[in-house]
Amino acid sequence: MKKTGIYIVEDEPIHEKWLKELLLEACPNARIIGQADSVDSARKALLEHGKEVDLLFLDINLKASNGFDLLNLLPNIDFDVIITTSHTQFALQAFAVNAIDYLVKPFRLEELRRAIRKFELYQNSASLKTNIEGADKGNLGQEVKLTIPHLSGLDFVQIRHIIYCKSEVNYTHIYLDSGKSIVSSKTLKEYAETLEPFHFFRIHQSYLVNLSHVTSLVRNKTALIGLSNGEQLPMAQSRKGLFLKKYGKTL
Predict the structure, then answer these.
(1) Cβ 208 vs Cβ 200: under 8 Å
(2) Which helix (H) or strand (E) holds 240?
(3) Range of 29's domain?
(4) CATH of the domain at 15
(5) Are 8 and 119 in the same domain?
């Protein structure tokens, strides 16, 4: 079994030692690649050994710097991140950088185990596209499950249950036919790239709709798309012609 390569960024030796001891129990398959106590030293090490790292444990308040600065300085991040901090106010920033989990020190062994489990689930899904590779496109592909990352972990949702997705800066609100909505840490652009082959259409810069849930098109000054949940969404004028050409006869 492949070892899980772990890198630790922590500037307090007692917390670093404590985390390593907990990892022995929470993740017996772990291999500690290295550790650093500053953004500069961590950046140099990750640029050199980043391909060996699967999971980064990142403290936020470091010597004269901020752990989030490290992520901004790395050109490519091919590993997952778990935030470890003594403060609670960075949760939204952790969400924005797609952190797997946010652990407030001192956290318990069970909390670390839960975070490792989230990491393992995320690894199994690999990316938004992993679960749909090789699937039939169009309506048949809507039986496939989509992996949706969010602040509390991951949801696995059949594509057919998604009514539409709405962009909100760097987040995406996903609205389901159950009435539930999920705020995901992926952008609408990423969801569009994944879902458009499966009978989805981006009607507007802010909206991606599942055509299986479209019930009407009202042509006024602003075209409105009617959906199965009773909502109406605006369609951008620049998208209306393509929409009618591709789907006007098939809805």
Answers:
(1) yes
(2) helix 237-247
(3) 4-125
(4) 3.40.50.2300
(5) yes
- Amino acid (one-letter) located at 74: L
Query: Tokens 């259409």 appear where?
Result: 201
Query: Which of 104, 125, 146 is the endpoint of a domain?
Result: 125
**Contact (Cβ atoms closer than 8 angstroms) between residue 192 and residue 208:** yes
Q: Is the peptide bond before 106 cis (omega within 30 degrees of 0)?
A: yes
- The CATH number assigned to the domain holding 199 equals 2.40.50.1020
List all residues 6 or more positions away from 92 whose beta carbon is below 8 Å from its beta carbon.
none
Query: How far apart are alpha carbons 81 and 72 in whole angstroms?
Result: 13
Evaluate if pTM is beyond 0.70: no
Check the CA dihedral 11-44-125-181 and report its sign. positive
Q: What is the pLDDT of residues 129-162, one digit of tens each?
A: 444 444 444 554 556 778 888 877 778 888 999 9
Count of the separate structural domains present in the chain: 2
